[in-house]
């Protein structure tokens, strides 16, 4: 048990680190593709249509733009806009004075500088006189940025250059002795555990970019993105699978091959773990063929679909790439077919495995399995959420209220996510967005932002969903949190003594001079609770002189009002509560009534 | 912005939610915050998407189109101790409201106070205090305590 826990925390640790690394790359994939396409098409002399002028774009894009963007993004992840700016400033220090693209350096300096700036801000923020914030903000960042850029230039840059050289020597060596394929033995199982993005964007892509800069292409881009192994496994299911796994495999194969969404085949492997052998065999074969036949990509293929791979394939390596992908598919198909033929299972476990996969995914993203009740809202993981937006019709009232409530709850829970509000029509579809709306507006919001996670609330002020949301985010930051306390100790019975519930025909709350509103509310809440419990005794708010003096009336009052009541009535039954709306006794009263 | 005493009306008795909204809207008109047309836009908005917030409060405000009738930011308060049902007529669930906040917001100037109201009213006992308040000053004082 303890070992299992340790295992899972290591997994969570790797995943978190990988998520952090790929988080710096992900937003910049577009820029990487822009560079990749420019290089593939116009590079002189190796491009499809060599152009000496456009060629001038390629190097600065790779050496300056991409590392700066990564440093910027890395800083932003740590300390928002200020972090982003100082991250970019400091990254420049690593870039200047070297010819190698400094991705790793950017991935270190970006977050590190932002973190330092945050510490500095924390130390000084309280001491700044009002009116001087702007000056402080700009000069603290400016001065620290200057120091960090110089530090990066003289200290970090040489370390990176040396490290980079060693790493490339290592990769070169592996490639030269044709050992690179063996790396797939590690990559494939890790992929199935949803570490695919961590491996691809965290390790292979940065190294691949350096290699591509040197020799114009890299096999490293293909090692994780190759759709061959997944395709082979799914084809095997199409022919030799059973039950629902067989019928669902063709669609999955199309998504895998043309859509490049690897996650689609992971549940099939989880269903039959020995299939990991097929994935490994396919991956090794693919990488082997890529290396031998001169395959390689100019830039990362993201997503790993056959179309993306062909689009960024280096000139002259189409043959190697296609043979590698199909070779991988054939080998993994054969191995998977053998494994499946020996399989005696019914194949109807797919649904269950898919569920298991979902829980693994949430675990690997450091999140507890959500309850069935909010399963709908967990389709997209909370780990991806970067901001929360409340949306309403005009963005004036209800959404502003909801946003300030949740902001308050986040603050108390130590969650640092921006919560804003807007009108539905101003919603923008972006990733990492959690949109909260009233139920009536859910459809409209979904149209505007189909990719955002959606939560609908019926009641903006006291929705239980808020606490679920807070709990989900909290679970992300405190994976090792103790499980919730075991069931609360049963409430002691018998707190209500001396009341004959069998005689009660009506429950009353008293409206008196200064408590009109609260009596109305208490009556409404109590009759609601009665209805939910299936109880039929009527509940009424009355004036103090409107009651019959008879034990059929059960009157619920605050201690202060009880005195008054005792002066007027002798026989009615009275229960005092400290809080007419939320007292624990009220629940017990409901239970005992008819 | 601040909540003005003149914008708070206590101990009102209204038969329908529309009337409650009109009352909150009229306070905004009288306070020079909106044109009378804004009230119709408040009713329209509530028919479209309810401004019932739960916990016995509602925050009627205009539609997006109605924003052009706003002259300045303002918030009005109508206390309805006997309550008024904000649910749709064809709906059999009861949405009882005892405190109505009429809202006209320009340039987000109202967000500060709205957020105070939200945090305060998220505890239903606090709404009870508002519903029982005996003077406009008491309402203002209650809401002021938030965040301190």
UniProtKB/TrEMBL annotation, chain B:
Gene3D superfamilies, per the entry: Mannitol-specific EII, Chain A
Keyword hit for Transport: yes
Highest taxon in the source lineage: Bacteria
Keyword vocabulary terms for this entry: Kinase, Phosphoprotein, Phosphotransferase system, Sugar transport, Transferase, Transport
SUPFAM superfamilies with a match to the protein in the record: Phoshotransferase/anion transport protein
Sequence ranges assigned to domain PTS EIIA type-2 in this UniProt record: 1-146
Name the UniProt record assigns to this protein: Mannitol-specific phosphotransferase enzyme IIA component
